[in-house]
Amino acid sequence: MKIAVYPGSFDPISNGHLDIIERAAKIFDKVYVVISINLTKETLFTPDERVLMMKDVTQHLDNVIVEQTSELLIKYAQSRNAIAIIRGLRNFIDYQYEMTLFQFNRRIDNDIDTFLLFPSADNLFLSSTSIKELVAFGGDISAYVPKELVKPIQKRIKEKKL
Ligand code: ADP
Question: Which residue's C-alpha comes closest to atom 21 of ligand 1?
Answer without folding.
Answer: 16
